[in-house]
Each structure stands twice: as C-alpha cells, then as structure tokens.
Amino acid sequence: MRLLILGPPGAGKGTQAERFARERGIPRISTGDILRDAVQAGSALGRAAKAVMDSGRLVGDDVMIGVITERLARPDVRPGYVLDGFPRTVAQAVALDGLVDDQAPLVIVDVEVPEEKLVERLSGRMICSSCGWLGAPGAKECAKCGGTLIQRPDDRPDVVRERLRVFMRATQPLVEYYRRYPTFRSVDGDQGESAVAADIAAAVASVLGDTR
Prior knowledge:
Strand order of the largest sheet: 2-3-1-4-7
Number of domains: 1
Shape: globular
CATH superfamily: P-loop containing nucleotide triphosphate hydrolases
CATH topology: Rossmann fold
Number of strands: 7
Structural class: alpha/beta
Distance between the termini: 13 Å
Number of helices: 8
Largest sheet: 5 strands, parallel
Strand content: 5-15%
C-alpha cells in the first residue's frame, strides 16, 4: 500500500493522510517531518537541509530526493506508507518512480477544492502560538497544549489568494504528470472530513482492484 495525496493548501490533505495512515497502520511521511527528522539526526543531508532552511530558501530537489530516499529505506515502510507533501516537482516525482518497487502500486489521489472554498478555509484558520496545532473553528485555546490560537499573517485572504496562485503554477505540471497514470484518481475535497476519507478509501480500492 503506497498512497500519495496531492492537493492545494487548505484541501485537508494532511488530515486525510494522517487519518488514512492511522486506519491502515502504516506511517504517514510528510515533508516537514522528514526534514525535521533529518536535521535532528545530523546526517549530511540533514545538515544541508538545515543550511537551506536557515537561509529562508526552499529546499531543492537534490536535497529533498536524498532525504526521502533515506526515509523510504527504513524498515517501517515495508507494509506501505502515505506520502504528504512529497513530491512537489516533476523532478521529485521522477525520482520517486525509481524508489517504488513492483510489490505494490503507487496510488495517487488529488483532493480537489474550489478556490473560494480554500480561501474561506485558510483565512479562517487559527494556529496555536505554542505548538503549531491547528485549532478547531471558533476555538480560542489549543486543544493539544492549551496555548493561545492566533491567525498567521500569511492566512489573510489577499495573501491566501497569492499563495494559491503560486501553488497552482508550481504544482500543475506535477498533477498533469500523474494524471496519465492508471493509478491516478481525483476526489471532491469540498465535503466533510469523513466523506472525503470515504472517497479516498474508495479511490484506493478501485486502483487495487484494477491492478490485481
């Protein structure tokens, strides 16, 4: 079971990736977690990633590919995994193809949400100032640590729209790259969390049924 969840900011792909991984008993592998683990481990790739992040730049393909290669070599991914946030470029997708063996297909699910809904979700989002946990709508305190919930400057509606434009320009080639795969599926992300989860599960089941 190898699942890659794609989608723009605010689509809920992180929530869905975590839920799917938990229900299937496989690790969720997110870009942020990978980078933090590599930096904490103090590996050569981790040090390279830290230097880039400390300078405020985006981590390049070479470093990200190296970090994900290290992560997918660990024994806990043998039963499968869910990828969240990688790949983000076609070059990274091509590298991932080389890392996936023939034991199970890579299922790609794109969570689609209308732009206006994404703006509404992101501009209303509150983040814990202490631990970074995403707060529930209307909440004032973090349910995880009790910290104060705040709105990040980059979650203002005007900034959100620009972020989405940049994201779409950067990732559209990636979606088109995967769209030609027989294991590619799209789901409607403009639904409740459970409904989206059910559609993702159905999409995965349809791929596994088609490839057996």
